[in-house]
Every structure is written in C-alpha cells, then in structure tokens.
Amino acid sequence: MPAEPIRPPPPAPQTTDLVGDFAADHEPLSLAAAAREPCLRRDGRSPSPSQLYRWSSAGIGGVRLEVGRVGHRKVTTRPALLRFIARLSNVAAPAPPHVTRIHKQAVQELERAGI
Question: DSSP E strands: which ranges in 12-89?
Fold first, then answer.
C-alpha cells in the first residue's frame, strides 16, 4: 500500500476580531508576552507592557489595541497586534490647526468675492 503524500495543514482563516482569533486557536498573549513580539520591536527594543496597556485603554489617534480578559489578566493575540499596526498605518494625520484656519479664511474671502 503506497503511503499518502503529506499535505500541509489548511491555512488559518483570516480573523477580524479577538474572539475570532481565539476561535481560530491563536494563543492568547499576556501584555508582557505581547510586548516581546518581534513585530513591535523598534531599534531592537521592545515596548514596555504598560505601553501596550495604554494602547488598549487610550489608544493612539483613536485606534485601540484589542484585548480581552482571561481571569484578571488582559490578553491579546498576535493577529490583533498586526491589525493594530495595520490600522495605525492607515490613519490619516489630522491637518495642523493653522492650515485649517488659513483654509477657512480663504473660503470666506472667496464667498465674499462671490466666487
């Protein structure tokens, strides 16, 4: 009887939230463990776990790190970290206040001129 060829496991389904990550068997990471993930390193240094806590509570520019609770510990997943990074990369920076003010003044001048 010939041996069956070895097939790679099917790719993990793409998840869009933390619950989906847990359902897809992604390992929950404590914030301390998540801080050591290579995708978060900058200049060879990892952020502190308190930084991840701030990302989950206050966020950056309205973008928050997805976290869940397992007992009394906040946890996240590697896919949640990657989604957080992707969302930060797509956030448009707000215009500086002086540019907005100048734009409003120009619009008012055009309206007064009837243009």
Answer: 29-30, 68-70, 73-76
Q: How many structural domains does the chain have?
A: 1
Are 17 and 66 in contact by the 8 Å Cβ rule? The answer is yes
The pTM score is 0.66
Query: What does the pLDDT look like over 48-82, one tens digit per residue?
Result: 999 999 999 999 988 999 999 999 999 999 999 99
d(CA 70, CA 80): 16
Whether residue 5 lies inside any domain: the answer is no
Q: State which residues form the domain around 71.
A: 18-113
Smallest CA-to-CA distance from 77 within 13, 16, 15, 34 is with 34
